[in-house]
Amino acid sequence: MNYELILSILDIIVLVFVFGFPIYGFNLVINFIVSFHHFKRVPHSDKYTKFAILIPARNEAERVVKHIAKSLVNQTYPREYFDVYFIVESQNDPTIQRALKHDFYYFVRPPISPDRRTKGYALQECIDYFKINQIKYDAYMIFDADNVLESNYLEVMNDMRQAGYEVGQGYRNFTNCSENIFTSTSSILFLYIMAVTGQARSNLYNKISLSGTGYYINADIIDEAGGWQFTGMTEDTELTRYCYKNDIKMKITTETQFYDEQAPEYKVWHNQHVRWIWGYVNQGSRSHTHGVVHHNSGKFKRFMSQLEYKWSFIPFAILNVVVFLLAFIHLGFSITALVNGEMHYFYTFLLRTLINVLALIGEFAFIASMVIIKEFRRTKFTLFASIACVLTYWMLFLDIILAFLDGLFNKNKRREWKVIPHSGNIKNKKAIKQSRVKQ
Questions:
Q1: Confidence grade of residue 107 (pLDDT, cut at 50, 70, 90)
Q2: Rounded to whole angstroms, how far apart are CA atoms 149 and 258?
Q3: Whole-angstrom distance, CA of residue 200 vs CA of residue 37
Q4: Quick one: pLDDT band at residue 282, thresholds 50, 70, 90?
Q5: What is the largest distance, in Å, between two alpha-carbon atoms of the chain?
Q6: Does residue 89 contact residue 112 with C-beta atoms inside 8 Å?
Q7: What pLDDT is recorded for position 439?
Q8: How does DSSP assign 121-168, residue by residue?
Q9: Per mean pLDDT, which range of 21-25, 217-221, 399-403 is the poorest?
Q10: What whole-number distance in Å separates Cα of residue 281 and Cα of residue 285?
Q11: Looking at residue 212, what DSSP letter applies?
Q12: How many CB atoms lie within 10 A of CB 376?
């Protein structure tokens, strides 16, 4: 076997993908640079938006829903300009008692078939209820039961909407980012989406990447789409794609925060990854009403924003999959050389295997370090959690590969929407403060 030729070919592949990354991954480099640009603060408005706050909250424990309920009670925004709806599946759901305690509303979903279990269908049914009963709102705001809002959240969202932004989201922070490696790595991922790509897109294109909840959307946009059409495993990315396609003006802000809980257990963490990766894969086959193109941008800017969004994940995925595969290829040739008794090539390929593995770990360590440094002032990662996350962030990428394979060989998991359990155990002191009712 011509090991020298094999080594040369593999070296060329490494050079092409690693040193060519700034070319095919230019958007990631630009996003990271632009994300450091300070946001332009939107002016305060004396006009008010009538918000419908929608919270899918199926059988949530009292210790979970009490935090978001109390943080909504704490809002500085005039109470008469927002209504809160907890969306449940049974008249016996304990969440209803918390809703009634604070004079909030609740919406009980009609009997649910197995293919309508996603959060998107819960939102669709509630919004359809508004339409049937001619209940009018200016905008819908979406939260999860485990969220906690800063007291000025609705006020800042209103300012953004009155400034002309049709979709807006606050800064996503976490109630338990330093709990363990699962919560830490998930927090870093969402911080990257929000604080790097999200802030860059907001600055460059008036677009953002919706992740999870905490966002509002103008009611007329949903009407134009023929109702809430975003019902897949990842309704947030479906809605993001729709907003890009129809040139809807979006913004993210750091002027206010909402907090959410990250999964502290591997099984739940992995199930989330299965849902995310297959929701992302399957959404391409889902079609929605074309709606109305809003023409907020020129043709070139709109083209560039859509190109950047479609291309954003691909360079990163290509680089890491190639490095990951190269590690296995080098390891395979190392074992072959060992079997053939060619110890020089055994050690050479083994060393290349180690270099590939360390490069992969090092890349993720660098990303985690940059995100932690950039966002430390807001997230307050502990020193131990920061070090642990830097060293273990690569595990998230590995589990996403495992999640893809899990869904590939288990077809039911590709479309199976599982409820993510919440503990309501808030470890972030700043978030705890927001969930205390004013005296």
A1: very high
A2: 4
A3: 8
A4: confident
A5: 80
A6: yes
A7: 39
A8: HHHHHHHHHHHHTT---SEEEE--TT-EE-TTHHHHHHHHHHTT-SEE
A9: 21-25
A10: 8
A11: S
A12: 11
